[in-house]
Amino acid sequence: MSPCQTSELWNGNGQQVAWKHHSGGFSPWPYLVIILVVLSGCVSDQVDESSPVASYQQALASEEAPQRTDNEGADAAEPLGLLTPVSSESELIPEFDVVVDPNTGSKISQLTVEQAIFRALAHSPEIRVVSFDPAIAQQELTQATAEFDPTVFSRLNYEDEDNPENSIFTPGQSETTLFESGLKQRISTGAEWSASYALTRIWDNLVGRTLPTRYEPVLAFQLKQPLLRDAGQKVNLAGVDIARLNHRIALLGFRKKAEEISTEVIRAYWQLVQARRDLEIQRRLVKQTEQTVDKVEGRRGIDATGVHVHQAKSYAKSSQAVLLNFEKRVNDAQDALVRLMATSGVHLASDVEIVPVTAPEANEEEIQRPVADRQALALAMQHNPIILHAKAAVEIADINVRVAKHQRMPRLDLVTSASTQGLAREREDASGQLGSDYTSYAAGLVFEFTLGGRERYAELIKRRLERRKATAVLHNVADQVAVQVKERLRKVETNLAEIQVQTEAVAEGSVYLQALQDSEMVREQLTAEFLLVKLQAQETLAQAERAENEAMAQFNIALAELAQATGTVLDLHPIETSLSSLVTAHEEAERERQEIDRQESEAAGRGYRGYLWPLPGGRGTAF
User: Fold this and answer.
1) What's the pLDDT tens digit per position in 366-396?
2) Residue 547 CA to chain centroid, in angstroms?
3) pTM for this structure?
4) Residue 329 burial class via C-beta count within 10 angstroms: exposed 0-12, middle 13-18, buried 19 and up
5) CA end-to-end distance (rounded Å), the chain
6) Measuring CA to CA, which residue among 185, 180, 179, 183 is closest to residue 195?
7) Of 336, 324, 291, 318, which is closest to residue 126 (Cα–Cα)?
8) What is the CA radius of gyration of the chain?
9) In the chain, where are the structural domains located?
10) How far apart are CA 369 and CA 361, in angstroms?
């Protein structure tokens, strides 16, 4: 069949007229729209989520926050409900093993440093607070990329007009029904295109009208492409690039908080170890002092005067006062550690005593200087989250400078359009004319230049100043981190050397006290002066043991603080192991939930298919 056919129609005056309509032919419009959609595509909002830190962040942000007995703190009858976490069935880690001491009746729970880190990473409210920031930044990135998504638009309009007739060339009455639908999109090059199809049904009472009732379809395409200002992917994707960098910054903030909490847990754990060890040393000293005081008291009137007795008792009272402070230090250190873990079994409102079982280590043959100065500084410049944050800020400033420089150009836009339309009494006939005839094209350039250009020049200067500021901040942060790294390196070395010195002091003090005790057994006369010397030797040995204990704890803390300064604290074995275990536990729990959901869906489906609809007579039909 020919694409053009002749049809005989009758006009409003009863006269027969001939007109042509298009019943077929090739139309390139659908293919043009498809090609544009494929070429423009969608801007991706994907980010790198392969790192353990990203997996850990997603696991925390995706799960419900741990509940407490009173989440709002509104129950006056249970004021401690706000401090008491609730154990849930989906708990990923086992509760503390709490045992009751048969002698004292106190509740005791043993804890390793790995367990403390694991629980803190899983339950720390501080880490959970910042875990939402990368997820929020991810949605902001999605919003930025959504500006380039295709948009479908439609409209439907009806008009009924009845106007006074004052000319035979103007209709007095008319009815117009318009339906339009199309697709539009902004693409990364800065172009904006739209393709639409409109169908209009018109009736009017114009006397000379050939087709009083007619259909007018229009297939239109428009394209506006900037050639200077607002042109190019680097400018149009600047918001997406900045949103992606903001997501990286948010993830760095989460990592920084995780490193801070991990370091704080290690510090609190070793401080608890130190406090409990100091308490044991002081209790032993108090006991020894009391025994010596009893001996001095027993020699009153022989070779001990009242002065000697009071001096010995003064030693005993001082030791007891120090013991009270050490007991307080133990409780303070335990509360600091419990706050970081915040579990349902052991919390700030519980009365469980934490007993750390991991012993601090400092073997000179195994633990030498961790890294050289230059190596530690290089690690910090590459991995410290504070420096990486400052580097990302410089990248954002670079993007803003590039955009501001580009936007100083004048505006020159290419504007094109093409349309094809039809006209017939019947809708099918009118639609068949599209793409075969009655095609219009238009193309033009739009130029715009702002005289003076002060606004855009000021924007460029502003962005350049922001870039210089970001660079200065980066240099300042780098210097501060370098000082911190070198200081913590020296602290590690000093603590290691102090351990050696204090170990020797403890050995010398032990030998000296043992010599006094040996001479006490063979002395013919046990003078009060000798007993006072023994009290001093006991105090000196206790001080040396506490100093050695402190140096040992501070050395292990200094190692963690050095790793935090170099940005490698999450690579420490206990933290890396805890992080991997936590992510694995989350993944297994998620797989179990998905499997349960799948089984429930299958069971619900089987139950629906097996349902019998009751029929009269007691029979049923299966659906």
Assistant:
1) 445 545 678 889 999 999 999 999 999 999 9
2) 41
3) 0.77
4) middle
5) 51
6) 183
7) 336
8) 42
9) 4-40+151-186+191-229+411-448, 579-622
10) 14
